[in-house]
Design a protein that fits this description.
Layout lengths: L1 H14 L26 H8 L4 E5 L3 E6 L6 E6 L2 H12 L5 E4 L2 E5 L1 H11 L2 E3 L18
Antiparallel strand pairs: 1-2, 2-3, 3-5, 4-5, 4-6
Length: 144
């Protein structure tokens, strides 16, 4: 189930246009002042973000909601443990995308939306490097 949630979150990020405008997705002329990183329940974070959360997942280890409308949509997820958050984020790395990360929460969406959201929630913008699989060099044999 967690993998489906990660895939859904990454697809939303792609659909909302997460192409960067700058090194961290922010344009230099509209970078908001970054507040102290928020923490708390999904409802508390949503309130801080100015979102009426549409709860999609309400499980013991993860709670997830859709926020915003149209191109301003993003997903906000909270985790019961740091380990659970790390495992979710590790799986998300396989799909790329843009993430705003705080203590036991992650927001997924377009870079512009996450930059604005960072102005309300703080956190760190993350753009994981995609993982590559397979071998190089012709199956492990080098040409001589």
């Amino acid at each position: 189930m967690r993998k489906k949630l990660v895939v859904a979150a990454v697809l939303l990020a792609a659909a909302t246009g997460c192409g960067p405008d700058g090194p961290d997705g922010a344009r230099k002329d509209d970078t908001p002042k970054i507040p102290r990183t928020a923490s708390g329940s999904l409802e508390h974070l949503a309130k801080e973000a100015g979102c009426r959360p549409d709860i999609q997942t309400d499980a013991a280890d993860i709670r997830q909601a859709n926020c915003g409308e149209g191109g301003g949509r993003y997903i906000l997820a909270t985790f019961s443990t740091d380990k659970g958050q790390a495992a979710w984020f590790d799986q998300a790395n396989d799909y790329g995308g843009a993430y705003l990360v705080g203590p036991r929460w992650i927001a997924v969406g377009g870079a512009a939306q996450l930059t604005k959201l960072r102005g309300r929630l703080g956190g760190t913008l993350e753009r994981p490097a995609p993982h590559h699989s397979g071998s190089s060099g012709g199956g492990g044999h080098e040409a001589r």
